[in-house]
């Protein structure tokens, strides 16, 4: 069995942002040489997320609006966590959107549905963050 590990680096200039990382993951799969297996993609920070969905700008706007209704950033005083930091909302948003995703690899390719894409979602940016890509298979 083969094993491959890589870290992707992000440093978004804004507090929140959405990045399509599908092509980077495809390159990782190609580099790994795995033809049949699984790829795990997970955020290594508790204020960002990795998930799969459609790459459509209206939907991206809807994610942002929905998350802001569920866990509004301000006022910062509404959260007990915000004594030292002001990112409690980012922790909650990450919990909603999830930590990681796993995709099957078949014939050396990501085994996706028609519109599926992989995204990195930053909720507390303006500093370096990492995403782990771990591939196992044959």
List keywords for this structure.
138 residues, alpha+beta, Jelly Rolls, 5-stranded antiparallel beta sheet, 3-stranded antiparallel beta sheet, 3 helices, 8 strands, 36% strand
CATH class: Mainly Beta
Multimeric state: single chain
State the CATH topology.
Jelly Rolls
The assigned CATH architecture is: Sandwich
Shape: elongated
Helix vs. strand class: alpha+beta
Overall domain count = 1
Strand order of the biggest β-sheet? 1-8-3-5-6
Secondary structure: helix percent: 25-40%
Share of residues in strands: 35-45%
Q: Can you count the helices?
A: 3
What is the makeup of the main sheet?
5 strands, antiparallel
CATH homologous superfamily placement: YjbQ-like
Low-confidence stretches: none
H and E string: EEHEEHHEEEE
The mean pLDDT is 97
The N- and C-terminal alpha carbons lie at a distance of: 5 Å
- Strand segment count: 8
């Amino acid at each position: 069995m083969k094993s491959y590990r890589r870290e992707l680096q992000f440093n978004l200039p804004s507090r929140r942002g959405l990045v399509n990382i599908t092509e980077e993951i495809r390159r990782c799969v190609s580099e790994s040489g795995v033809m049949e297996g699984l790829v795990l993609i997970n955020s290594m920070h508790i204020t960002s997320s990795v998930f799969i969905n459609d790459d459509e700008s209206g939907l991206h706007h809807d994610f942002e609006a929905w998350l802001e209704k569920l866990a509004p950033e301000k006022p910062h005083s509404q959260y007990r966590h915000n004594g030292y930091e002001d990112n409690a909302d980012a922790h909650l948003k990450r919990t909603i959107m999830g930590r990681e995703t796993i995709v099957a690899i078949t014939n050396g390719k990501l085994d996706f549905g028609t519109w599926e894409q992989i995204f990195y979602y930053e909720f507390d940016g303006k500093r370096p963050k990492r995403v782990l890509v771990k591939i196992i298979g044959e």
